[in-house]
Amino acid sequence: MPRITERTQPAAYQAALVHSVLSTDTHRDLTDSDLDQAALAAGLRPPAQPGTRDAVRTVLACPVDFLCIDPSPEALTANQDIAQAVFDAADEGHPLVVIAADGRRIVMVPQQVEGRS
Question: Count H helices, E strands: the chain?
Answer without folding.
Answer: 4, 3
